[in-house]
Write a structure and sequence with these properties.
Blueprint: E1 2-3, H1 4-10, E2 15-19, E3 25-26, E4 28-29, E5 39-43, H2 46-55, E6 59-63, E7 79-83, H3 86-93, H4 100-105, E8 115-116, E9 121-122, E10 127-128, E11 133-134, E12 139-140, E13 145-146, E14 151-152, E15 157-158, E16 163-164, E17 169-170, E18 175-176, E19 181-182, E20 187-190, E21 195-197, E22 203-205, E23 211-214, E24 219-220, E25 225-227, E26 233-236, E27 241-242, E28 247-248, E29 253-254, E30 259-260, E31 265-266, E32 271-272, E33 277-278, E34 283-284, E35 289-290, E36 294-296, E37 301-302, E38 310-313, E39 318-319, H5 320-330, H6 333-346, H7 350-353, H8 369-376
Parallel strand pairs: 4-5, 5-6, 6-7, 8-11, 9-12, 10-13, 11-14, 12-15, 13-16, 14-17, 15-18, 16-19, 17-20, 18-23, 19-24, 20-25, 23-26, 24-27, 25-28, 26-29, 27-30, 28-31, 29-32, 30-33, 31-34, 32-35, 33-36, 34-37, 36-38
Antiparallel strand pairs: 1-3, 2-7, 21-22, 38-39
């Protein structure tokens, strides 16, 4: 539930009160086309605003540019606010309707099927779901939530107010900071992919003795895999967000406040700077360094160091504007090849190149500019 007075008193730096009854309370948050009289509703254009006003939701938040379109007469049944950044407004207010804790607390503070080693340290108000396993000397700080079938191995540490969803695996000696959330079926601290090949060609596994260290306010989506380091630590720095189905290899270091969207893959021993943003299905290879404030287009591949901040894309990687031009040119590649073959045939160079797929002519075969001009005419 959200009271209009809460917005007015606690979020006045983001929201501007426009009109209406500050005593109003919203019990649900809905889209403008499904709103009811008890809703919190965000609107960002005139059509949405007109529809919302007909329903008279409890709390109405309009984009700042629409504030002047509200009726001149007071809106009695609705409390109206404006906000400049609608997504930021949603980030602040939607949390008042989040019932996520009920998924964990419905079983009581410790479900009877939870398996907790006698040497584990469980803080105050920690909820342990059905069939979770907490290993020896593991530590879980206050107000954390551990979902069903989660496994927290020996010597692992979990900070304050963590949310560990069902079927998460946290390997031995790995560390999770405060206010982190790990979604289902994610593995943190599995062995990295490291082998030596003996003289007979047989792979010999290199034991991974390190761990994974995750900072504060990190969120990791479902079905991710983060490998422990060989001897030191794999780092996920504070504020970083990983989407679903991401793979972080051993010995990597991911910078603060970065965004890794679905399908991101990276090789081992790579360092990525702060404020990194990548589109989906991007790949970063092993043993490279990426500067701060780098953005990657979706489906990009990085095989060399990036020393300069900026936007990049494609494979081979290029500055984003050049990568977009290359992508557009690829759709014309067959036509370009046909036209090139016609030019070479006109200049009687096809015998030297054998066919249209052959290499370019040597220096002695370069066509004079006048000949090219003749063909263009």
């Amino acid at each position: 539930m959200l009271a209009a007075t809460t917005i007015q008193t606690q979020h006045a730096d983001v929201f501007t009160f426009l009109c209406g009854d500050l005593k109003k309370r919203a019990t649900v948050s809905r889209t403008w086309d499904r709103a009811c009289c008890e809703s919190l509703v965000f609107v960002s254009d005139e059509v949405q605003l007109a529809a919302a006003l007909r329903v008279k939701p409890a709390i109405l938040v309009v984009q700042a540019k629409l504030a002047g379109l509200l009726p001149a007469e007071p809106v009695r049944d609705t409390c109206c606010f404006s906000v400049r950044n609608v997504p930021m407004g949603m980030a602040l207010l939607f949390k008042y309707f989040d019932a996520k804790r009920l998924r964990f607390t419905q079983w009581g503070e410790r479900h009877p099927t939870a398996v907790v080693h006698p040497d584990a340290k469980i803080g105050a108000r920690v909820f342990l779901g059905p069939y979770c396993v907490i290993g020896a000397r593991a530590s879980i700080a206050d107000d954390s939530l551990i979902g069903a079938h989660a496994v927290i191995e020996n010597d692992a540490q979990i900070g304050l107010r963590a949310v560990i969803h069902p079927h998460v695996f946290l390997g031995a000696a790995c560390v999770i900071g405060n206010d982190c959330e790990i979604h289902p079926h994610t593995t943190i601290g599995s062995d990295g992919f490291g082998y030596a090949v003996d003289p007979c060609g047989k792979p010999r596994k290199i034991t991974h003795l390190g761990n994974v260290q995750i900072g504060n306010e990190v969120e990791i989506g479902g079905n991710c895999a983060i490998d422990r380091a060989t001897l030191t630590s794999t780092y996920i720095r504070s504020g970083t967000k990983l989407d679903n189905i991401c793979h972080i290899a051993h010995n990597c270091d991911l910078g603060e406040n970065s965004f890794f969207t679905a399908g991101f893959m990276m090789g081992g021993s790579t360092t990525i700077g702060r404020q990194f943003v990548t589109g989906g299905n991007s790949v970063v290879t092993a043993h490279i360094k990426i500067a701060d404030n780098v953005t990657l287009q979706g489906r990009s591949s990085v095989t060399n160091d990036i020393d300069t901040p900026g936007a990049y894309g494609g494979y081979p990687l290029q500055p984003l504007k050049e990568a977009m031009k290359t992508a557009v040119s690829l759709s014309h590649l067959n036509e370009i090849r046909k036209n090139l073959h016609r030019v070479m045939r006109h200049l009687r160079l096809t015998d030297r190149c054998q066919a249209e797929d052959s290499v370019c002519p040597s220096e002695s075969d370069i066509v004079p500019a006048k000949a090219i001009e003749t063909i263009d005419r």
